[in-house]
TrEMBL record:
Native organism: Rhodococcus rhodochrous
Keywords carried by this UniProt record: Hydrolase
Listed GO MF terms: hydrolase activity
Protein name as it appears in the record: Alpha/beta hydrolase
Top-rank taxon, per record: Bacteria
Signal peptide: none
Ranges for domain Alpha/beta hydrolase fold-3: 90-296
Pfam families: Abhydrolase_3
Amino acid sequence: MATTHSARPASDAAYDPDVTKLVEAMRSRGAGPLRDLGVEAARQSLESIVRPPGPDMRSVQTLTFPGPHGAVPVRVYRPRSAPEQNTPALIWFHGGGMIMGTLDSFDRLAREVAESTNATVINVGYRLAPEHRYPVAHDEAYAALRWAHENAHDLRLDPDRIGVGGDSAGGGLAAATALRTRNEGGLRIAQQVLVYPGLERRSDRPSMRHFGDSPFLRAEDIDWMKSLYLGDDPSTDDEYGTPLLAADLTNLPPAVVICGHADPLRDGVEQYGRRLQDARVPTAIIRYPGVGHGFFMQTHNFSRARAAMAEVGALVAARFAG
């Protein structure tokens, strides 16, 4: 008698063994598209994930600043490895598809980024869609950068070494903030750190076709979340909501652009990185094999994520030092 084996999606073969273990656990729990849950349940699902505590910091301080749409909370992380005064800083925008995520659910990631880069991290609690659609989050991201520059002395920051960064949707906010800062002038960004950034609506690219069924990020959920943030009509999109639409990428700050091989966003992310290079912007494009979308949040589970955090952190720290 022939032995039969349960089939698994071909895209799963691209994962490292420790990633495969989590994927199989997610599939066994019947994890489906986020849109089937709805916004509130999706938010609760993200907030309910229990993660080990992140690295101990010299200090962690929660503040607010007056933004264009009301007060915006920020959490300031100062790692023990950084000097007490005149430190470099990353203004960080968390992920969550523009509809999810809080300073609490991204606390561990902020701590790890601060420790690995030897920089102060200012994590921004921007307003979420669909209650607050584009351009609210973008406006608040740009306002956070302005606030950090205007209050650099009180925050004990070096105003010449303030960068922007983010993961997933937050990476898209960081890219858009860099574009707007160049266009409007008056501020300096030392570097931009784009971790699998959300830069466009769903496009028919090979990575989207091969990995669009990933439990970490599904193609249909990209459509859903982008519509909640940007609206249903792509003809109204601009470069601040959809940075891949930007026609001119010259004179932008140096960039670190990273993604996982099995991320459906991979090809769009890497295209943006190559366009930055073509525009003579110093840009490192790093693709990590064996992982998919969201892996930077999984240092406690994935060995590849731990390596990426150390490597990206060292590169960011070296650029600040230079």
